[in-house]
Design goal:
The chain has 14 helices and 14 strands. It is an alpha/beta fold. Helix 4 (about 70-85) runs parallel beside helix 11 (about 275-285), helix 5 (about 100-110) crosses helix 10 (about 255-270) and helix 7 (about 155-160) runs parallel beside helix 8 (about 185-195).
Length: about 400
């Protein structure tokens, strides 16, 4: 009898893409749909990126490139990190991958044997759980509800690390909540991390340039340099530069980890294409006016979404200070009905909202928090206020 590998049975489609595809299908049927579902920045990189690509096309070698990444792009990434305070890295600490998701998959293959434990806070980005299950890891979830602003406490971290997970995975700024840890909060967690030298630390910080209210981006290495030998930093061009489809991911890590990622690259992808490399290099080293302007725009949009959520009785919505997500607790709607549709959970809520108001949001259960839903506010500017008005109407019509 022919069978597939067991790991394929552990793989499942992205819950985010399921919602996005349903919204796309309804729109194709003629429905007026506003999508708050998929986490793409919805802007394009500056013209200098496209000019760099055109020049690269004229000089394309058609040859294989470095498994680690081109020297020029590695140097640009090192400089890019230094701008946010992540200093002391060299090419030997770095590697380039096919998107941050590809980098994360490689990291889990590098660090986790089947049966090893990975710990991370809830809510989490969906792929954390999905990839960990595919590689056969045990998963240790650290619940961080709205009541604690979706943030991990030092006491929680201490208790979790006492159980000796092989890897601790940390996301700041957060997808799906948009929450950002202050310097003092990062310092308090770093004080705990130094006590547990046998746990690797992955910091998925691809939104590090999307921080609001002047609070700044902070990493454990900045507070406790001795953690450098255990911290693995992830970044990407996707969100900051409006380039999710270009698939450019970065990792900076201790040399032994970076070298292992390079080895996997040699087996999986060989190299980032020359054209994509040129685009990434231009994005990192060229004018930064587009990402700076978009960051300011997203902060203003954040304020509009938060104001709309706070105007809805019963909704709990911690104020995010980064990325482009808001993650309201909508459990006040559970047990109610909208027309003939009963709402018992977040999936019911999001289905009813999409069917009756044409607004697509992702149920919080996809991120490990079933009392909430994720709003990605990167839709076309003329749709944001209309979508928020529809959400408010939906709540007002609940019985």
């Amino acid at each position: 009898m022919l069978t597939l590998a067991q790991r394929v049975g552990r793989a499942k489609p992205s819950a985010i893409m399921v919602v996005a595809e349903k919204a796309k299908r309804l729109k194709a049927e003629g429905r007026d749909i506003i999508s708050f579902s998929i986490g793409v920045p919805n802007f394009l990189p500056g013209p200098h990126v496209y000019e760099a690509v055109r020049k690269a096309l004229d000089h394309d070698s058609g040859q294989y490139g470095s498994n680690r990444g081109s020297d020029a792009l590695l140097d640009a990434f090192v400089a890019h990190m230094a701008q946010v305070g992540m200093t002391g890295y060299t090419r030997k600490n770095c590697a380039i991958g096919i998107g941050a998701k590809g980098v994360l998959y490689n990291l889990m293959e590098v660090l986790l044997d089947e049966g090893d434990t990975i710990a991370f806070p809830t809510p989490y980005w969906t792929s954390y759980l999905d990839i960990a299950e595919i590689v056969g890891a045990k998963i240790q979830l650290l619940p961080c509800p709205a009541e604690q602003n979706y943030k991990l406490t030092p006491a929680q971290l201490d208790a979790a690390l006492a159980l000796k997970p092989k890897v601790f995975l940390f996301n700041n700024p957060s997808n799906p909540t948009g929450m950002v840890y202050t310097r003092d909060e990062i310092a308090a967690l770093a004080d705990v991390l130094v006590k547990f030298p046998d746990t690797w630390i992955i910091t998925d910080d691809i939104y590090n340039r999307m921080v609001f209210d002047g609070i700044g981006y902070h990493n454990f290495v900045m507070i406790k340099p001795e953690l450098r030998e255990r911290v693995i930093f992830m970044d990407s061009c996707s969100k900051t530069y409006g380039m999710p489809g270009w698939r450019i991911g970065f990792v900076a890590a201790p040399e032994v980890v970076a070298n292992a990622v390079v080895t996997l690259n040699s087996n999986h992808i060989t190299n980032l294409p020359e054209i994509t490399t040129a685009a990434a290099l231009a994005a990192l080293t060229g004018p930064q006016d587009v990402p700076i302007a978009k960051n300011a725009e997203f902060q203003e949009r954040r304020d509009r979404v938060i104001a709309a959520m706070k105007a809805i009785p019963g909704v709990i919505c911690p104020k995010p200070q980064g990325a482009f997500y808001v993650f309201p607790d909508i459990s006040c709607a559970f047990g109610k009905t909208h027309g003939t549709m009963r709402i018992d959970n977040d999936v019911d809520f999001c289905n009813a909202l999409l069917e009756t108001k044409g607004v697509a949001c992702v149920p919080g259960v996809a991120f490990g928090e079933s009392r909430a839903m994720r709003i990605s506010y990167t839709c076309p500017a003329n749709q944001l206020d209309d979508g928020l008005r529809r959400v408010q109407e939906f709540f007002a019509e609940l019985k």
